[in-house]
Write a structure and sequence with these properties.
- The strands form five sheets. The protein has a five-stranded parallel β-sheet, sandwiched between helices. Strands 7-10-13-6-14 form a five-stranded parallel β-sheet.
- A hairpin with an 8-residue loop joins strand 11 and strand 12 (267-268).
- Helix 15 (353-368) packs across helix 16 (375-382) and helix 18 packs across helix 19.
- By secondary structure, the chain is of the alpha/beta class.
- The protein is globular, with a radius of gyration of 27 Å.
- It contains 19 helices and 16 strands.
- Among the domains are: 4-124, Response regulator (Rossmann fold, 3-Layer(aba) Sandwich); 144-304, P-loop containing nucleotide triphosphate hydrolases (Rossmann fold, 3-Layer(aba) Sandwich), CATH 3.40.50.300; 438-497, Homeodomain-like (Arc Repressor Mutant, subunit A, Orthogonal Bundle), CATH 1.10.10.60.
Length: 497
């Protein structure tokens, strides 16, 4: 069958006619004369044809309920519809609006298009998941196995989860996995990037607003908490939430109720909150930037994602996965990654983590055009003369290797500057790379990493004439994340122009 269609309409003759027409085209058809009967069959269908006027409820209200529970496409039908009804239905996410009486050809075309759009969206989500855009947590390092175990254990509980880790480590992927493995998986998944919403709009974004609540509030709007009712709300970059909103969020988490901006009634919501941050929230608490009581409310379960540089043994698995899936997406032949290139990839510090690695592999595949990419191509893509860093033991499968590995783009004088292994006869350290001595300005690992990041970002900014957007794309970072990192490292992009 090409699809299962649910018709919610109390006109028996119309339902019988539509059923006959659609079944002749090979569709399965379900019928319901009331909103209650229709909502009970929602999980069984691929498309809903919904009348605006029903015996027990208004169809526009039913559409709003459907949107809370499912992403199934809905086509509204009416013989008495107004322009306002059509506009409202579109705002609530209706696929189309069908005026009665309608021609058979019109119905069949609309049904085919709606099901095609749904199928394409499903296929895209599956492809993206296989390509590592929104799906799998790959790697067999201790850190990744622990993360997968934590997801499995907490997914079936109502406990709130705080996911921590650097940019690009896959925090949203973990949040999606928690939702997908939970009992709420058929309910809405709603994500908010707290750092991307202006501070004066964050309350309206989360809690919604009533018509006329402020200049520009031309209609009542449901906030993210209402949209996620029954499902999961992902609060990304929670550490960037302004102070005045932290208190209001805490109250919602404690009471399970929200109040729209400009409203005078409290609305009950059933939402599981999963949050994520790349900040050190304990340091923010000590500095008075984040509420400790909110932190404890959010941090019932903590899942920490280790940066890629701390788990180089996972890189071959990730690279193999990206080569296979991205080649299919681009219509290219999958290629072998030579051992020397793989070691170069393992030796890089990857400040943008898995996201940066994926983008680099995609560029390698595009520019190699079906041929095996070389280490020289990697250097060309990443720009600049390749520096090196020493790696005492770099695990590749079960093999432990000791040597000096090049790091494309590493600036001279960085903590990862080249340190060649000694090859002098009689030297007891011959053939073994030694870790570079830390400078006085980089006496700790954290300072060494920060110094490398500062120099590397400055170098790439200069290469792009101070253009932050272009630099962020090359580094595999979101522009907002690069701005925050530059502020933390004391980098002024204007100085590089």
């Amino acid at each position: 069958m090409p699809g299962e269609i649910l018709i919610i309409d109390d006109e028996v003759a119309l339902v019988r006619s539509l059923r006959s027409t659609l079944e002749m085209e090979g569709y399965g058809v379900l019928g319901a004369g009331t909103a209650g009967e229709g909502l009970a069959q929602l999980a069984e269908c691929d498309l809903v044809l919904l009348d605006v006027r029903l015996p027990d409820r208004n169809g526009i209200e039913v559409l709003a309920d459907i949107r809370k529970k499912s992403d199934v496409p809905v086509v509204m039908m009416s013989a008495h519809a107004t322009i306002a009804d059509a506009v409202r239905a579109t705002q609530l996410g209706a696929h189309d609006f069908l005026e009665k009486p309608f021609a058979t050809e019109r119905v069949l075309l609309l049904v085919r298009n709606a099901l095609l759009v749904r199928r394409l969206e499903t296929d895209r989500a599956e492809l993206e998941a296989r390509a590592g855009v929104g799906g799998q947590l790959l790697g067999e390092s201790v850190a990744m196995r622990r993360a997968r175990d934590q997801i499995r254990l907490c997914a079936g509980t109502p406990g709130r989860v705080l996911i921590t880790g650097e940019t690009g480590t896959g925090k949203e992927m973990v949040a999606r996995a928690i939702h997908a493995q939970s009992e709420r998986r058929s309910a809405p998944w709603v994500a908010v990037n707290c750092a991307a919403v202006p501070h004066d709009l964050i309350e309206s974004e989360l809690f919604g607003h009533e018509k006329g609540a402020f200049t520009g509030a031309l209609r009542t709007r449901r906030g993210k908490f209402e949209q996620a009712d029954g499902g999961t709300l992902f609060l990304d970059e929670i550490g960037d939430m302004p102070a005045h909103m932290q208190a209001k969020l805490l109250r919602v988490l404690e009471e399970g109720e929200i109040e729209r901006v400009g409203g005078d009634r409290r609305l009950r919501v059933d939402v599981r909150v999963v949050s994520a941050t790349n900040r050190e929230l304990r340091a923010d608490i000590a500095a008075g930037r984040f509420r400790e009581d909110l932190y404890h409310r959010l941090n019932v379960v903590n899942i920490h994602l280790a940066p890629l540089r701390e788990r180089p043994a996972d890189i071959p698995v990730l690279v193999g996965h990206f080569v296979e899936t991205l080649s299919k997406l681009a219509g290219l032949r999958a290629v072998e990654i030579a051992a020397d290139l793989m070691l170069r990839l393992q030796a890089r510090p990857w400040p943008g983590n898995v996201r940066e690695l994926r983008n680099t592999i995609e560029r390698l595949l595009i520019f190699s055009q079906g041929r095996a990419p070389s280490a020289a191509l990697l250097d060309e893509i990443l720009g600049g003369t390749a520096g090196t860093r020493a790696v005492e033991t770099l695990e590749l499968g079960s093999t432990s290797l000791g040597t000096s590995w090049p790091v494309p783009g590493a600036p001279l004088g960085s903590p990862y500057e080249s340190v060649a292994p000694s090859t002098s006869e009689g030297d007891p350290g011959a053939g073994t790379a030694e870790l570079p001595a830390a400078s006085a300005a980089a006496a700790s690992l954290r300072q060494a990493v920060e110094e490398f990041e500062r120099r590397h970002i400055l170098e790439r900014l200069r290469a792009h004439g101070g253009q932050v957007a272009a630099t962020a794309r090359e580094l595999g970072l979101e522009r907002s994340h690069l701005y925050k990192k530059m502020r933390a490292l004391g980098i002024d992009p204007d100085s590089t122009r």
